[in-house]
Amino acid sequence: MEIPKPKDLLDFKGKTVVVTGASQGIGAGIARRFGEAGAQVIVHYRSGLDGAKSVVEKIRKSGGQALAVAAELTEQSEVEALVNNASEHFGGLDVMVNNAGIFPNARLLDMTRDEWRAMIEANMDTAFLGTQAAARYMKAAGGGAIINLASISAMNPASDHSHYNSSKAGVVMFTQSAAQELGPSGIRVNCISPGLIGRPGLEDAWPEGVARWQQSAALGKVGSPEDIGDACLFLASPAARWITGVNLVVDGGVLSSMIY
Ligand SMILES: NC(=O)c1ccc[n+]([C@@H]2O[C@H](COP(=O)([O-])OP(=O)(O)OC[C@H]3O[C@@H](n4cnc5c(N)ncnc54)[C@H](OP(=O)(O)O)[C@@H]3O)[C@@H](O)[C@H]2O)c1
């Protein structure tokens, strides 16, 4: 592989990227950053058509190419169709970002089996199905990069989130396992564990949580979707060409804070 000059490492011109759950929040930030870096972006959504359209519009305005595609990611056939869309519209698939997920709270003693299953399905099955569909395509095409979204909750459990914490710990181990199997096919698989990421209304809805976060974070603030987008650019780029199977923590230093 030819190694690009340092200034060209984050140039994604001619590369096709699928970002799941990209109509809002972190996924929208990831999609925008890939678009600004020159990629052709499939902006996946489930129900958020307006949000996905606005992300597509922003990418087009910044000079990139993008397309909004709907899929229910717990359905294997829809995930496969999503991946096919990338190759049909943009001629390939270089990067798959499995970002979609859910995080409703539930206390362990009140949690129903359906709530547990829904969490595992939305967070782990989607990572499995997205990785498998993308890797089948990438293996035939000669390689690629896959990034799964885990969470710092995979390492430090959040309260009333035993199903969420477990699902994200599963995503971390799944990522390592996939990296081991897919490396020989030229496919790198990594995950990112974000800390608390800002969203409209977060400070009003959860002022005490945001204040606690700001106190614990060495860098003193909550993150932005673009902070995660840039970590994705790095992991998907040739700058990370010898990196696979890692869990990159992007949390402003919270996991490094004192625990006593
Ligand atoms: N926000 C944080 O502070 C934070 C911290 C750590 C980790 N994370 C992780 O980062 C990822 C993104 O978080 P976020 O806060 O940006 O979430 P978000 O705003 O709720 O967006 C998640 C997206 O995933 C989609 N989605 C969920 N289940 C789906 C399914 N079965 N099929 C298709 N689409 C589905 C939703 O689509 P629709 O709305 O259209 O249904 C939604 O647009 C998640 O994996 C989350 O666990 C977030």
What is this structure, in a nutshell?
This protein is of the alpha/beta class and 260 residues long. The chain contains eight helices and seven strands; from the N terminus they run E-H-E-H-E-H-E-H-E-H-E-H-H-H-E. The radius of gyration is 18 Å and the shape is globular.
What do these coordinates show?
By secondary structure, the protein is α/β, with parallel strands linked by helices. It has one domain (13-248): 3-Layer(aba) Sandwich (Rossmann fold), CATH 3.40.50. The chain contains eight helices and seven strands; from the N terminus they run E-H-E-H-E-H-E-H-E-H-E-H-H-H-E. A seven-stranded parallel sheet has the order 3-2-1-4-5-6-7, sandwiched between helices. Strand 4, helix 4 and strand 5 form a beta-alpha-beta unit. Helix 3 packs parallel to helix 4 (113-141). The longest helix has 29 residues, at 113-141. It is globular and about 50 Å long. The mean pLDDT is 97.
